[in-house]
Design brief:
The chain is mostly helical. About 55% of the residues lie in helices and about 5% in strands.
Length: about 220
């Protein structure tokens, strides 16, 4: 094999990562970059040097898996193994090695994750009542109703712009541009959410807080 076995794995990982642009999402590449940084840090603490290609063997990777079992969740461990497996496959394809020891490492079987429990009607009412006692009740009610009625995550809601919301008297839609995995999706906007937005934005638009009035003036809001 022509490859220099003293080539640092960091150099090869950088090339592999650049080859994955367009194939893997930016979020996945960021997670996988973190995988290698943690692997390299673990190896350096043990060997006082950076890992090289000759260190890409079962003993090293088995030791790293055993280390991960002590410090991360099963899901995170599987993310590490998935990244290392894909990197190892790439090493073979590009003739850097003739075997992928990461394929010997077993993934951890995950237990089914329970669906998050929805708030009960009494809890929703208590939440909305408590908002009325705080500062900026109209704004906070609009935020909470938007999340309750559409299922948006906190981060998704925080990134919304007025231009992402289609507001009509009889219907509406929200475009989530930066959802999980950097995916875009569209979510219906029901009457409860639209009325909360109308109550909040009517003063800014200088109109009555009705769905009809706010819908007519919606285009005046900054996008």
């Amino acid at each position: 094999m022509a490859e220099n076995m003293q080539t640092e794995l960091n150099q090869l990982w950088t090339v592999w990562e650049s080859n994955q642009i367009g194939t893997l999402s930016a979020a996945t590449l960021k997670r996988y970059r973190g995988v290698f940084h943690q692997f390299a840090k673990w190896f350096h603490l043990a060997e006082m040097r950076s890992p090289v290609l000759s260190d890409w063997h079962p003993i090293t990777l088995t030791g790293y898996r055993q280390h991960l079992q002590q410090v991360v969740t099963a899901r995170t461990l599987n993310t590490h193994l998935s990244a290392l497996r894909q990197f190892g496959d790439w090493l073979i394809i590009h003739n850097h090695t003739d075997a992928n020891p990461a394929r010997r490492l077993k993934m951890v079987k995950l237990q089914a994750r329970a669906a998050p429990a929805a708030l009960k009607p009494g809890q929703v009412n208590a939440l909305l009542r408590s908002i009325q006692l705080a500062r900026n009740p109209e704004r906070n009610t609009a935020i909470v109703q938007l999340m309750l009625q559409t299922g948006l995550r906190i981060g998704e809601c925080a990134k919304l712009l007025c231009g992402d919301i289609e507001f009509g008297e009889r219907g509406g839609m929200v475009t989530v541009r930066y959802g999980k995995g950097d995916k875009t999706r569209r979510v219906p906007l029901n009457q409860s959410a639209r009325q909360a937005l109308a109550d909040y934005l009517a003063l800014q638009l200088d109109v009555d807080p009705t769905l009809k009035a706010v819908a007519k003036a919606w285009s005046r809001l900054p996008k």
